[in-house]
Queue: 4 jobs
Job 1
Amino acid sequence: MSQIAASERAKILIVDDNPVNVSLLVSALRQEYELSSAYDGTEALRLAAEQLPDLILLDVMMPGMTGFEVMQTLIADPATADIPVIFVTALDQGKNEAQGLELGAVDYIHKPFDIALTRLRIRNQIERKRQRNLLEAQKRELEETLSRVKRLEGIICICMYCKQIRNDQQTWQQMEQYISEHSEAMFSHGICPSCKEIHYPPQQVKIPAGQDDV
């Protein structure tokens, strides 16, 4: 597999108090992702807030702050609440796994690691995160567009003679300029029949002297 440029890689934070587990995950993932690691909950929270990774692999059983406690703190902070978390555990499935999922974890990886399955689970969550980011970006773009259109609603002060519009800075603009700045509209120019008669009157036909109608 060809290596992906670092600027295009998803960021993963690995949290485990056992350096051997960290090394195994780093070896399995370093060609595809930008990795960082923490060995306790306090360091994990600091790095998560600083780096805002795309995914956190979080060990459940750690001295001091457990993975569950780290997860609760992440969710309580709006800056980190949306970072997907996969719990990494050697605990038996069942009650402990249900607890993690109830807290908001997106998946579980069990020790000892099945490297192929681990990569697949991680790849699935990274792709889901990218899709969510794309949808959020599209939503923001749509909201910004609607906001620009909505700014044309309400009362607009327009000169009754020259048809210039008074903007928010209390200066006067040509109507075309104002609408272009406040919407996605574009203009082309033509001439209506009434203005054509005023500005381009038909040529008057001169009749030579002596040839007037009888």
Note: The chain has a mean pLDDT of 84.
Job 2
Amino acid sequence: MRVKSRHHLRSDEIGAIEDAVASQLGVDLDGDSYEFVELRDSAFDVVLVDGQPLVFYVDDEPFLTVRGANEHPPDRRVVTVDSGAVSFVSNGADVMRPGIVEADDAIEAGDLVAIAEEAHGKVLAIGRSLEDGSDLVGDAGKVVESVHHVGDDLYGFGV
């Protein structure tokens, strides 16, 4: 991933990011420095919080990266998958309904969500929900589309 441009964010831009992440996920970022990084060969732009790629933009919406969600575990918009789904989700697969053991009922179709594994609660991926939270657990069908996962280029950015 190549950097096209980067600049420090103004306080109003920082406030908008912190407010969005707090309202969506119940997470208080409270970093000391925020730097916006526009990437040349990526669908995403990244925000470095204290030098770490903790936030990214998906369709102009700020959301935690996988690293960000593991550093600041979200209280809301979490979909939990069973151990059988871990290897698939970690490799970028979409999430199928039978692999989900729990989902936040407040999730609405189209929301970005953090996808965590059941045993330790670690976030494996970020996805877009195709159904409301109350409809995510069940027997069949793809219900979360993978956007960013452990091991992809964005996960490796800045390491």
Note: The chain has two domains: 3-70, 78-155.
Job 3
Amino acid sequence: MDLRQLRYFLAVAEQGQVTRAAKILNMEQPPLSRQLKLMEEELGVLLFDRSGRSFTLTAAGQLLKKRAEELLGQFDEALSEIRQLEEGLVGTLAVGSVVSCISLLPQRLREFSERYPRVTYKIQEGDHFLLGHYLDARQIELILSRLPFEAGLDDDRYAVKKLPSDPFVAILPKNWFPSPPPSSLCMADLADYPFLTLKTDQTKGMHEKVIRQFRANGLYPSILCECSSVAIIIALVAAGIGVTLLPRSVIDSFPLSDIIVCSITDADFQSEVGIVWLKDRYLSKSAQRFIEMFSEEESTP
């Protein structure tokens, strides 16, 4: 017995006649009658009482009708979900993000959830090297990252959509300054403080960008600490250990009670941000729609 036969059976059960059911099913009456007979022979029971002018369900037929409606309803729902999945309307969107980009996610995910409320999310955090591993292992499809993406592999493997750049700001301990604290500082002021820099053995791009900016101003900061964690750097600044330069959006993920954020008066340099994915791998519709949403934001006046 197959789903096609169950649909034939339900049509006859609902119409009470083979003739009307055959018309609705757009088929001839003899083949439909033959299919009903084959079902009864397979089950070893009568499904219809054929003694009257119309077909009446037997007890076995009534039970089969109930189960067939449930089964076909579940099957139709499954087909609908599969079609919606292909359209990016359901399923799980797996995204990775470096810590310094986490603040860029919540608003986008909220907007995406409003459009596609049946999509669920899997979020992975890590440095470029770890997220590159997750991407290769298909544990995530997209990465929100500072650029260049430094996973230690061939850059040609990655597709990158650049997002609006993010200006660097100075982050300093609040207890170093009287109230009100300064709103801006120059590079020479910053070079006089013990400096904390974001750097790992694999990812050095942000560190090198900051150091180049100091050197462009003829300055050589005294680096007190190289750290792989944005959260630790912010905690060290809040504790009065030193100062750092980070992209402005990073601060949105941390409390400002013990730090101050200053613009830089004599330097205007930016952190590049982008969405990264593998060129040669299938990208789900959910992931494609997520990327498209960023494009829509850029085109909005």
Note: The radius of gyration is 32 Å.
Job 4
Amino acid sequence: MPSHRSVIRIRRASAADLDALVALEQATFTSDRISRRQWRRHISNANASLRVHGTRGHVDAAALVFYRRHSSHARLYSLAVAADARGAGLGGRLLGAAEAAARAHGCSGMRLEVRVDNATAIALYTRHGYVRIARLPGYYEDGGDGWRFGKALATGAG
């Protein structure tokens, strides 16, 4: 019988996930956090895609993508995996789901920002074909530098 972690189900977030999204954000990030009010708005925002892993009301991973009018590039704004869920491939699966959602939205590319000292995330993005575009000095709330990464999204890929 497959373990909880071997069966990876990714779905759209719902209002029932709000508390769990806030808790995941608080546990994962020390600054530049998404507020409860912002999460509530993003759940139903037509210009965003919010994919999660977990049962209703329990989220152990989330990916938030934004779409801009008149832009062919989506922006992966946040990708978070709870500490006790890491190592199960959720980051890569969520990234794939985010890319699929962006393609379905008509986007031909994805961009993202990541802290220069976040080696785990940088390795994930690089493994999945993202390339470094630019360094972003003082990009984060605490003054930390970031990298901008990008990737072309092949049409018809899944």
Note: Confidence is low (pLDDT under 50) at residues 1-6.
